[in-house]
Amino acid sequence: MPLFFSEDKRAALECLLFVAGGPVPVSTLAACLGLSSDDVVELAAELKTLYDEEGRGLQIREVAGGYQMCTRPQFANYVEAFLQPELPALSIAALETLAIIAYRQPVTRAEIEYIRGVKVDGVLSTLLSRGLVQEAGRKDAPGRPILYATTPRFLEFLGLKDLSELPPLDEAAAGKE
């Protein structure tokens, strides 16, 4: 692959992604690097290719509408042995509620409870406190109930670029990937 950007710009992008600790929007990278958004996309592709070709333990991923430097999945056992998990595991009830919100968003608490068949106040509170879901306005219905939607943290938590990467609902219900 021919490289179009200077080593200096690639190194600068590498530094920004390293210190960010999470996904960085293209517009932020463009402003910091003095490049257009299109150039940042090209530059990130170059850096990603270099990391892939050299088989490094780190990789450049497009996540939650931006770019992130993260470890490669094949080295997860080493990283897990070194670090404590950032988020404790979610309960089955929390995962079910999170899945309903992810696939039906924006959705009200009553709609979630109708689908699950149980109250979700506590679970919804947990998901809100962990930053995986957020209030997304109010539904134009009697009582103007609060609508809930997933957050960029949800995409980061699952390593998804955007919601289109969620498995189709039929495959997800069957437990396929």
TrEMBL record:
Top-level taxon of origin: Bacteria
InterPro entries: ScpB_csome_segregation, WH-like_DNA-bd_sf, WH_DNA-bd_sf
Pfam name, any one: SMC_ScpB
Swiss-Prot/TrEMBL keywords: Cell cycle, Cell division, Chromosome partition, Cytoplasm
GO BP field: cell division; chromosome separation
PANTHER family in the record: SEGREGATION AND CONDENSATION PROTEIN B
Name of this protein: Segregation and condensation protein B
Organism, as annotated: Neomoorella glycerini
